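User: quick one, fold this
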Amino acid sequence: MRKREHHFTPVLFHCCNAANTQVSDASMTPATSYIASPAASWIDDFLSWINPSLPTCCRISQSDSPQLGPKGSRCPPPDQPPCSTNATACADCVSCLTEMPPGGRPTAEQVARFLPWFLDAVPSEGCAKGGAGAYNNAIQKDTSDPTGIAGLSGGVITASAFRTYHTPLNHQHDFIAALSAAREFTEKASQELGLNVYPYSIFHIFFEQYLDTRRSAAMLVGLPMLAVFCVAWLFTGTLWGSAILLAMLVSMMLQLAGAMYMAGIEVNAVSLVNLAMALGISVEFCAHVLHSFCVSHGSRITRAKTALVKMGAPVTSGITLTKFAGVVVLAFARTQIFEVYYFRLYLALVILGAAHGLVLLPVVLSRIGPPSWSDRGVQGSQDRSSMELEASSSGDRARLDSAAAAAGVPGVPTTADGTAGVAAAGMQDGRPERLPSVAASGMAASAAALGGPEQAAAAEE
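Assistant:
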């Protein structure tokens, strides 16, 4: 557990003691907290090391010495060199403090001076409270600070760590649960202490990916699907066809997820990245067939057959077989990650992609496929012509004007009795004029649809 920006004496000791108390309380319920023991606090050992009741721990020389350095240098315990090898070298060493300050806490100046000594002190039989080894990485170091500890010369310890232990973790679920519990604990501690507290262990970096797999899967698969849908709508011009393509991709991803479960592929960072890549490859199996269907002529069944004839061979040889040949090579890989996460996944992708693009999609298009691009243009012309014929026969001036505007013809004048007809619509300066060819041919088509060839011929005249 790490904490940042401690202002010491007395705030530092109060915050750290509160944090240690919380860790101790959590260790009382290891089944849910996954904390096995109270935290080892460098503050507790530092207070013991600097206490005059242990005179052999924190010692200071009172005179210059060739072995120890100038006056005021740190003296090691008597059982460590040079004191152990030369009795006179440490003869004038005394305890750092004659007595503890009021409250039992050292002052800020004493902490700034003696804390670096504590972190360099090697534990031994003469003084087992030395911080070297146990706490030399517990406090953030900074060579630019005169004390060597980040922020210490300014009265702040920028960051420090307190060590504790997890309960035995045997399975993947245990590691994930322990990481989740540690983050919940530190989040609560941050709110209560007003500090940035966060957990760290060597296995956290490997299992962090499992904490939000659902969210990552939704982003890595859902957002690209939305992008494909928008691009397909932009280039095909049909919302209907884009929705069918999206349905094919959703079906393929769901079946690919089932294949992953059957093949024993776990959902992690590697498989999620492969799923995102598989989604892009899946578009190739379906987009070409859909585009060929949209540009073909005839009924849905006819256009589905045409699309399959035109694009069946390119999809089979250009996408399916080439990817299959590249995937098969991975089956002989000696590394398990390539054999499991790449060979099995991409083999399932090739099989499902070919099945969707060459089998399922043509069937769906033959039943509920979007209209052809050319059919949509003809249908629009026929709709405008039908509007003109109906307005002309009913004498509805407003409808005739709207129909003429839709066909690009100026407004149609009415006769004296308020009716309008084909002949009246063509009068200008007393001379009869023919209606535009678009409107005339449209009325002929509509008349043929309503009354047969005789009416069509009359309408053309």
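User: anything notable?
Assistant: The beta strands are 2-7, 59-61, 74-75, 93-95, 156-161, 197-198, 427-428, 431-432.
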